[in-house]
Design a protein that fits this description.
The complex is a heterodimer of chains A (504) and B (304). Chain A is α/β, with parallel strands linked by helices and 504 residues long. Chain A has 15 helices and 18 strands. With 304 residues, chain B is α/β, with parallel strands linked by helices. Chain B has one domain: Aldehyde Dehydrogenase, Chain A, domain 1 (3-Layer(aba) Sandwich), CATH 3.40.605.10. In chain B, strand 8, helix 10 and strand 9 form a beta-alpha-beta unit.
Chain lengths: 504, 304
Amino acid sequence: MADTSVSTSSATGATDPETTGTRPADPRAAFDYAPAPESRAVVDIRSSYGLFVNGEFVDPVGGTSFKTISPATEEVLAEVGEASVEDVDLAVRAARRAYTRVWSKMPGRERGKYLFRIARIMQERSRELAVLETIDNGKPIRESRDVDVPTAAAHFFYYAGWADKLEHAGFGNDPRPLGVAGQVIPWNFPLLMLSWKIAPALAAGNTVVLKPAETTPLTALLFAEICQQADLPPGVVNIVTGAGETGRAVVAHDDVDKVAFTGSTEVGRMIAKTVAGTDKRVTLELGGKAANIVFDDAPLDQAVEGIVNGIFFNQGHVCCAGSRLLVQESVADEVMERLKRRMSTLRIGDPLDKNTDVGAINSAEQLAKIHELSDVGEAEGAGRWSPPCDLPARGFWFPPTVFTGVSQAHRIAREEIFGPVLSVLTFRTPAEAVEKANNSPFGLSAGVWTDKGSRILWVANQLRAGVVWANTFNKFDPTSPFGGYKESGYGREGGRHGLEGYLA
Amino acid sequence: MPDLTAAAGSSGTSSSGWIDVRKTYKLYIGGAFPRSESGRSYVVEDAKGKFMANASSASRKDARDAVVAARKAFVGWSGRTAYNRGQVVYRIAEVLEGRRAQFVEEVQRSEGVTKRRAEAAVDASVDRLVWYAGWADKIAQVVGGTNPVAAPYFNFSLPEPTGVVAVVAPQQSSLLGLVSVVAPVIVTGNTCVVVTSCERPLPAITLSEVLATSDVPGGVVNLLTGALGDTAPTLASHMDVNAIDLVGLADEPGPATRLEEAAAENLKRVRRAPAAEPDWALDPGIDAMTAFLETKTVWHPIGI
């Protein structure tokens, strides 16, 4: 059985047999799955892509481009245009024109119909979007298919309904759009973050210039095609691909009225400085180091599932990941034992395989960062453990990892690793749990596990975090506001509250 | 296409001598299209007094059957997520739009208006459905909320559907008026029994065909055609109906008051008839939804 399991998980044919070792008690042996790869035939990746400006794909003025690769195989997927300052200017001009001439004059009812169309086309083309997202990002198809894409479509559906109801949203009787929104999004949920940005902006009557992350531009470019299919007026949505320089140009452009950014706290700080002294409105959704607090009366099996979901969902590339496990001392040993057992059953490998739980790390750069911080954790004296797992030879991979004996001073307890690495701390009293949870410059999210309802609410009241999940984790819904306290950023996305950042 | 429909509906023969197949107009109860159990029907004429169809005359028994169907559908429908109900109501708009020509023709003939006005009414009906579809997952965010009570309790109030709603539909506006009173009732999770416009029932019957093919579960909307006096009193006094919208009795204070009195027996929520039938083209506001919502408040202690 153990042999079969090895050959199964090396379905890519690239596994180094040396890393597998002998695993007489491999729990995966009891759950042997045949490879179940999702077909790539549904997507048609072009060899090169231009920028999407004023409703058309255009070559960048400077003619430069960059490659986007599959992090699971390192194969080059496409050449993508790199937008210069000049290109960004053209995109902002197109957005301004569309704002002045078309979008700001259109009744909300009609704007809403365009958004409903986009939502429906995203639903219609959901498999294509999911496969493309998985290829470009490295996340498991199970997640892109069941979380990213349906939630993204639902986001458009939700905000479509707001377009003609803005006066009911509680922001005054005559809410007005801001103008042109410059939006910069990360690589961890490319299409979903695009939806979080574009849907409320358009519903409120703004036009947008959006820059996707340089490692994951493809679903944004497919989204541009969806805008064309929906007959969205040209210039309402503009997509400028590129790296940091392009993002800087978007944020710094004089004719951008609103900046929305999701990404690292470091870049968020730079953006806040860039817009200082201007009239630009800003929302920032930045890093996190969420505490996931497990009390001794928690349903432990559920809690373990929540811990695993909290840190290994999307390879831990989640700003609100439950990366600090705070477990009550009396149940710490039991939780760790169950957690390790559960981690041993995680399937790491081909993201397109429908049985895969943990996919590829998004880039070589991110992988290096995860390695660096994990090595620091070990050097600082924390105990490191990973289940035996076969990692493909090509691509960027990191095994699910847990550190025990972590103190609050350790870098792995303070810094965002943004990978499948969990730091475990213990506590004795609820007050201590809250103090440790809040002992962070971040304040994006937190988790609480206990059977006692009053304690959930008490802890939630004490936590300085924008989202608190009780007996669950990493739940997202278009109706639910999301955003951070402290250095996790400001403003909220999602729900009725998400409109505020796009209305005057 | 619109011309073909109009020709078939009005003349019955084409130049080639082909005889059209005419539709039997029936009731819509529990997702099925039964004739009235009474076996009765009545003549529906167009605005010019020309014969259009024999519509079913719903009986008191049909009304009671419809209430049973609506009650049966309530648990499932109100248990759907708001997101799902929004998608379903949006789907009604999609399918209605696909039958635009048919509705334009029926509204035009039923109401005796110009084609242009009939088109405007049908387009507004599509927009109205889309508008209400969007409310499904927003109404709770607008009328619900947390209450900062002065004690260590987490306290929140949320809207819930009241249950089975009887709707006496507008008598003049055969489609836009109908859609404007049915959509707000169902989008929040209620189910309903509708007494359609008596003299202009055909768009309502065609709407039932749209509902039947739009992922709306059977029993969520039930439509009865016939004289108001045959079914409305039964619904107003029915002990398993939770609320009644009397808008169809605009300008008829006597019957409206009698129905309101009957409705008082089990304390139905009553949406009173206005003095005159409203201008359905106006922004409807959120009253038509909140009239049939209960507010539920939950208290939960906070403490270690």
